[in-house]
Amino acid sequence: MKKHIKNNVYWVGKVDWELQKFHGYEYSTHKGSTYNSYLIQEEKTVLIDTVWAPFAEEFVKNLDGEIGLNKIDFVIANHGEVDHSGALPALMRRIPDKPVYCTENAVKSLKGQYHQDWNFKVVKTGDKIDIGNGKELIFLEMKMLHWPDSMATYLTRDNILFSNDAFGQHLATEKLFNDLVDQCDLFNESIKYYANILTPFSPVLRKKLGEVTELNLPIDIIATSHGVVWRENPAQIIEKYSQWSNDYQENQVTIVYDTMWNGTKSLAEKIAEGIGLADKDVVVKVCNLSKSDENDLATEVFKSKTAVIGSPTISNSILHSVAGFIHLLKELKFKGKKAAAFGCFGWSGESVKVINELMANAGFEVASEGFRNQWNPDKDALKAAIEFGRKIAGM
Prior knowledge:
Rossmann fold; six-stranded mixed β-sheet; alpha/beta; 35% helix; seven-stranded mixed β-sheet; 23 strands; Metallo-beta-lactamase, Chain A
């Protein structure tokens, strides 16, 4: 069922309440998601994006029932990734000659994935299409936000920016608009989305925000590819992106560890105690990696000024869970953050050295030699861990 956005613009996407993992199993979506497709019905009828392939037949059937597929004049593919384009093959089998407007890279992406030579029309930033009733669609290339093929589409007079993956979040909702959903859920999922998907492209995003500003286009609504449509003060999410893209941090220290026999866990808790004793205002979060979601933890590190990483020594190195998490942090390219390491050991004790090297390689400033403890920590070791926490608070 289509939902009204503004004037002759409608949402015709799919709410996926059951989605728990995205990008394969790389990204957790505890609150599901939406695949947002939009229909514009002016003198020209335009479809912007489709939905993920598992919902392709449902999508095409519903769209046909709403308007009749032959009434579609052309399709815009803002992005070739399958959660946006998955229903294109089913749709184009029904309307094979209709033009598909997209970037040059999107042609490569769509041909590479679906092996079809549809009626592609390549567009670039500033290109326009007259859709009647005094309205135009203006295309804005969004290369590397977050694929090389990405673009956004702007509808004049209605002042709607169809922003593709920018400004979205994985949040299943029937409410559609940002002012109708729980604001804590909305912004928690928005910052998680930014931290885990868009942070590596922050320099590109800063530049693109500047380009959009220079175009001086009034934006009354931001229609995203996932989650809500921003109709109430859409500038608020643009302002958040501006903050998040500038080496973002809050007054927070996040301790992430894994443990074998709870010695490293005991250190983590005492380090947190020491940080809190030294700085009453800092937010300290202690996270057992094996019992936590990695994307949620990456979001906490994104918000932090310092990440404290702990692992016992095993096989002259660290637990593979910790190594994998640090690799995730490296991929996300966080900037302007400090790091420290800690861990228990029985014999050789290399874990702290290994963590320091990996965190430095991941772009963190290693601000301490770290804290090692042989065997299970006794009272003196726990006191030393508290003092180590105090030092971290002052870093």
